């Protein structure tokens, strides 16, 4: 009766999750498609779609990254993470604080800001370090970092690993 009235109330300014879809083109090259979601977008669709179709390629959901989730950083995609001792792995755990796209001309880049201090809520807004190598021995030297999601040099809690209450890490692969 009143189309001008909306019954979905959400703040639509921040991205609340980022989905990564994987597919292959005609030549069997692996292609990735990233899709950010706002609170209003998720309120309307109720869930993250399991598949996407874009530019003639069918994509399937690979992972979803949300603020508050933990990631383990990798030095490279082919690093043997299971061979690293648990106390060294704990220095690589960061908590995602925000996910967002950046548009530069016709290109779109996808990032996530992560914080090494897992349980600290700071009132000071600081920009994460960009373009520097992450110091895995002393993570407190750069506690805020920016992840380039397209490089995928991280493992996601719930998909790739679980952390038990005693601090041990169970791998899911």
Computed Rg: 18 Å
Shape assignment? globular
Distance between the termini: 52 Å
The strand count comes to 11
The averaged pLDDT comes out at 83
Helix percentage range: under 10%
Strand content: 35-45%
Q: What are the secondary-structure elements, in order, as H or E?
A: EEHEEEHEEEEEE
Instruction: Give the low-confidence spans.
Output: none
The secondary-structure class comes to mainly beta
- Widest β-sheet, arrangement of strands: 8-7-6-5-9
* Helical segment count: 2
Main β-sheet description? 5 strands, antiparallel
Give the SSE layout:
Elements: E1 15-24, E2 30-38, H1 39-45, E3 51-54, E4 57-65, E5 70-73, H2 86-89, E6 93-104, E7 107-115, E8 144-148, E9 154-156, E10 161-163, E11 169-171
Antiparallel strand pairs: 1-2, 1-4, 3-4, 5-6, 5-9, 6-7, 7-8, 10-11
Textual characterization of the structure:
There is one protein chain. This protein has 173 residues and is mostly beta strands. Helix content is 6%, strand content 41%. The chain has 2 helices and 11 strands, in the order E-E-H-E-E-E-H-E-E-E-E-E-E. It has a 5-stranded antiparallel β-sheet, with no helix packed on it. A hairpin with a 5-residue loop joins strand 1 and strand 2 (30-38). The relative contact order is 0.17.
